[in-house]
């Protein structure tokens, strides 16, 4: 049975009951928040990203950290550098002495002897060639037997073999001398000696042993990061990226790169075609030379500095991004790639 206003007049206690104003305020606030949240999820854009951690490296292998090796076996006689020394191309780093202190003198004497042997062989060859010419004239005139003419030709061949043998011996001797001339190890280019890896002046080293670690001075920096194989198909050369360098103060909003603070722009340079053993793919990101903001100075972002990078993909609503993350779906395929796929 419905309650009329006249009936309510008999229930004074029920009539005095009123909804508290704070409940009304909370209800209105909740409704407004729900509406704002729905509008936020539908209309606010979110930039999808994929990325990971990595380090600062370089594309050119000649600009990477290198090992300086001993070229000949021997004993380290003298060091010309120390840890942290700055060197220029051609500056001496260490001198290696052979165990036999008279080796160079003996090699020089051997070369002189071989040179004399070569000179004598060439002179004998010239004489043998003259004899062949003379015997040829006598044989044609009928004044010499064929056997003598043939023996003269054989002597010419023997002399040529001796000349070739002497030339080969001279080449071997000069090669040994050239190798011993490499006893002074020099810097391959301008840079720094990061560490001395060999011992003192009494240390014996073999050919190929590491003497020092060398870091070139001029480096074209790139960022090397590793991304999930699920997202690698969406990353292409030329994609924009944002980079956060370790030790550099930054506030990063991956979905809103325009409001990020302390991150730096980059461009994807290359993506590996084969995965790493852990299933991730390596991506190299170069500095965006056309951007107004450049990377930090080298003293703040040195070779080997740890970084974190975000590669910018498609722009989608926030609600879709939350749904995608909850369902563990990959990001959206770039519109240019999807258009090309439909055309194919």
Percentage of residues in helical conformation: 25-40%
Mean pLDDT: 75
| Individual helix count | 7
Tell how many strands the DSSP assignment holds.
14
- State the separation between the terminal residues, measured CA to CA: 72 Å
Features:
six-stranded antiparallel beta barrel, 344 residues, alpha+beta, single chain, four-stranded antiparallel sheet, disordered C terminus
Give a summary of the structure in a few sentences:
With 344 residues, the chain is of the alpha+beta class.
Helix-strand blueprint:
Layout: H1 5-8, H2 12-15, H3 21-43, E1 45-58, E2 66-69, E3 74-79, E4 86-87, E5 92-97, H4 103-140, H5 146-181, E6 184-186, E7 191-196, E8 204-205, E9 210-216, E10 221-227, E11 240-245, E12 264-271, E13 281-287, E14 306-317, H6 318-327, H7 335-343
Antiparallel strand pairs: 1-10, 1-14, 2-9, 3-5, 3-8, 4-7, 5-6, 7-9, 10-13, 11-12, 11-14, 12-13
Helix pairs in contact: 4-5
Structural features, described:
The two termini are about 70 Å apart. The strands form three sheets. The protein has a six-stranded antiparallel β-barrel. It has a four-stranded antiparallel β-sheet with strand order 2-9-7-4, with no helix packed on it. A four-stranded antiparallel β-sheet has the order 6-5-3-8, with no helix packed on it. The protein has seven helices and 14 strands. Residues about 335-344 have low confidence and may be disordered. Helices cover about 35% and strands about 25% of the residues.
């Amino acid at each position: 049975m419905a309650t009329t206003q006249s009936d309510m007049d008999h229930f004074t206690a029920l009539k005095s009951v009123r909804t508290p104003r704070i409940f009304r305020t909370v209800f209105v606030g909740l409704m407004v928040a729900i509406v704002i949240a729905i509008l936020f999820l539908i209309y606010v854009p979110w930039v999808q990203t994929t990325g990971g951690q990595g380090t600062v490296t370089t594309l050119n292998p000649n600009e990477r950290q290198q090992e300086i090796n001993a070229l000949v076996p021997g004993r380290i006689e003298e060091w010309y550098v120390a840890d942290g020394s700055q060197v220029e191309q051609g500056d001496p780093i260490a001198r290696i002495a052979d165990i036999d202190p008279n080796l160079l003198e003996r090699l020089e004497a051997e070369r002189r002897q071989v040179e004399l042997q070569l000179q004598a062989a060439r002179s004998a060859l010239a004489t043998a060639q003259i004899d062949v010419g003379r015997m040829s004239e006598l044989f044609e005139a009928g004044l010499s037997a064929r056997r003598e003419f043939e023996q003269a030709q054989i002597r010419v061949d023997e002399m040529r073999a001796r000349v070739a043998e002497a030339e080969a011996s001279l080449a071997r001797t000069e090669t040994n001398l050239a190798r011993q001339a490499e006893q002074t190890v020099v810097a391959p280019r301008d840079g720094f000696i990061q560490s001395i890896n060999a011992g003192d002046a009494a240390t014996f080293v073999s050919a190929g042993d590491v003497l020092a670690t060398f870091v070139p001075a001029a480096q074209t920096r790139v960022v090397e990061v590793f991304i999930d194989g699920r997202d690698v198909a969406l990353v292409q050369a030329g994609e924009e990226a944002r980079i956060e360098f370790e030790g550099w103060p930054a506030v990063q909003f991956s979905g809103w790169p325009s409001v990020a603070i302390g991150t730096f722009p980059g461009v994807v340079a290359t993506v590996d075609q084969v995965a790493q053993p852990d299933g991730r793919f390596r991506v190299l990101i170069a500095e965006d030379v056309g951007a107004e903001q450049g990377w930090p100075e080298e003293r703040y972002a040195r070779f080997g500095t740890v970084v974190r990078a975000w590669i910018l993909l498609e722009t989608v609503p926030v609600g879709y991004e939350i749904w995608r993350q909850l369902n563990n779906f990959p990001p959206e395929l770039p519109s240019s790639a999807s258009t090309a796929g439909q055309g194919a």
